[in-house]
Specification:
- This protein is mainly α and about 60 residues long.
- About 50% of the residues lie in helices and about 0% in strands.
- It contains two helices and no strands.
Length: about 60
Amino acid sequence: MLRHHHPEMLDTSRGQAPTPTPEPRGCLFALSQPPLMIFLGVIGFLLLMAAVHDLFLL
């Protein structure tokens, strides 16, 4: 009956929808998290203050 049936093809003849695979989360997802951005902001502020101190006060 099905001479050219390929097993790697998804069989949706029973009306079941395939389950979506979750997308991998990358760097932009990590940077959108508020605690990480607060931490990076504090570290950046400390580096900026150290640079200003070195340039103008020493």
